[in-house]
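3.2 Worked example (two chains)
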Amino acid sequence: MSAHNLAAPATSFLANIPSPPQGVWYIGPVPLRAYALCIIAGIVVAILWGDRRWQARGGRKGVVTDIAVFAVPFGLVGGRLYHVATDWYKYFGPGRNPLDALKIWEGGLGIWGAVALGAVGAWIGCRRRGVPLAAFADAIAPALITAQAIGRLGNWFNQELYGSPTSVPWGLEIYRRVNEDGMVDQNYGRAVDQGAPLAVVHPTFLYELLWNLLVAVLVVWADRRFRMGRGRVFALYVAGYTAGRVWIEMMRTDAATHLLGIRINVFTSLVVFALAVIYLLVVRGKREDPERLRGRPLPGDDDYDEEPGAAGSGGATRVDAENRDDEPDAAKSEPAQPDEAQPDEAKSEPAESGDAEPDEKAAASKPADEKADRPKETSAATSEKSSEDSDRDE
């Protein structure tokens, strides 16, 4: 067998990348969608890595998770709104069902809307925890773009976000998928003939995935090298991502809204890239003080009771109450009422100097301020003492 014949199978094997035969599996009647699983996996990675970076910068453990409770839902809604707004013709018009706009599990999340509305949710979470939004954005920047890379795997399962036909060795095979009824269904169907793909195209989803990982490495390196802060790490992530999105977007051939014959996401990328670069050039200053990243403690934090002044935390009330319980009983007792409030029989005329005992004279000679420093006795005790003095005077 010649060397040419040995090389032929290898060349054929490397000629393309197969798409998954399906993107949805069923556990009984419940569909398990690869697209949704990839999005969830990306979110988990972003939270875990973002939390580690936040703690390394001086922040409190668990804050990233608390803020994600607000940022993630806002981001998902924002991403879907942007997609529906720019690809409105898929959901509105003759033969379209507007309710399909709610089917987020079928794909269709615009990163621009996700970041914009997700930032609103993050701002709410940051205010609740008392931490600066810019510092939070810097901490999660590389984790966020890594999450985007993981999410792009969902496009692979859905056979979407690809480019024009190609003969490059890494071309992506697109299969014809049909559902149980024999109807063509790229989302819920299964490939009927993986040996005869419909087309071999540029895997633009893969290009973006790899580009995102490179940007994540760049952001981490720049952050460590220059100790960036005040939102500049996040701005670098935005600039890096949009720079790659421009050329990747221009390679895509899937349906999209066009402006002046160019895909609208190209214009969006250019505008956002310019804003990010301006921010990087204008904003200066050192990284935020780690103490500012601690924020206010909430119930469940290790130092919740150690910061009684935190607004709304209730720590002050709890700590003050504990301190009062530890005080001596004598310090808690109310001072005795003035002499006017004492019974009349307790008021006796002072003894003449000649009749006073030596001890009594010494007591009378003590300064008034020294007497005031001593805790006053109760009214009953004072009455008894006065009665004894009266007996001696008689």
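3.2.1 Second chain
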Amino acid sequence: MQQLLHPLCLTLAVAGFCLLLRPARRHRRDTALTALAGVYGFCALSFLVSLEPTWIHLGEVTDSHSIALLASFVCVIAQVSLQPVVLACWILPPDAARRAARTSLLAGAAVIAGLVLLFALLPTTGPTTPQTFTARHLGVGVYQAYLGLYISAYGAGQALLVVGCLRAARRTDEVWVARGLRIAGAGALLTLGYCAIRLAALLAAVRGDARIPAAVEHLAWACADGGTLVVLTGFLVPALGVHLVPGVRGWLRAQRQYRTLGPLWEVMHRSMPAIALQPGRRPTRVNLPVWDVSWQLYRRCVEIRDGQWALAVHLEPAVREASGTRHRGHGLRDGELAAAITADQLHAALAARHGGRRPAVPAEYADSVRHPDLRIPEDDVRELLRIAAHFTAAAEPSRRP
């Protein structure tokens, strides 16, 4: 059971750690994010050293066949010590959160020091595996103290996590965060089953019965690893809901906007290849970018604006007047009217450029009056999307057979 569930927990812990580690700059100002990354990192290490191949290899390298046990327990206590730090930063005022975090970390350090001291007193043993170590040493007094300290600290930390998650879920207005915290709290509650089984076995060993039935051992690890899987999933839900899902939506929105601007860009690029900032490549609306989509979208906007500037000398006043009259008759006003007129101006200017015609006094683009309101790139994208929509719609009749 242990060697079946441990790889699943390890995979999820590594995935969560990598996901949380990516926004590295945010860790400088977000203590909760840093602590949560530590939770996943120490959790991953604890499962890694508990895998039988790693356990045996560490024993051979260090000539201490049970060193992996200490490493695993230390990583788990570090993980449990960081969980209250995450919750404190989420639900307490800054000063109270700092005090709670300091208390939790100091308590964790004290437990780790006690584990190291008791480990040094454990009798030397031959080769062991994660499945056989506890069953073989449960009757040893020092190991009973060692296991009792670990289980007590682990159980207290998980109980605090249950209470803290439920409190935090009630206080937050973020639906994703509340759902994730409730899931994490349920997982922590499940891990308490592992603590109860281990404490019962420990009390039985103190009374002289150190036997652990195989079914009970499997149930203990099912509670421990299953609960940890649920906890890790619960803590990932807010990260996915608050960070990843909006990121995916933004990526899809940028893809859609990039594709919408495609027909306008292609016509301009065909007439004026020099507008491409990277002439060697041929991006089209069919070959959509996968990486740096926002940057590709911004560059496409810049190239379209460069094309507009190059076509400005071909703008005829009569085109603007006729287009304005027609679109006002269709009920267009303000920004939509300016975008529709600009699209007609671009069609006419491209034709004039192809025919070599230039008016004596070029007109201005209808959307030029809106340029002072375009303060950020997103504003310019929205304006160009309007123009591109009218540009494509105006071109439809000419495409029909």
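3.3 Remarks
Confidence is low (pLDDT under 50) at residues 396-401.
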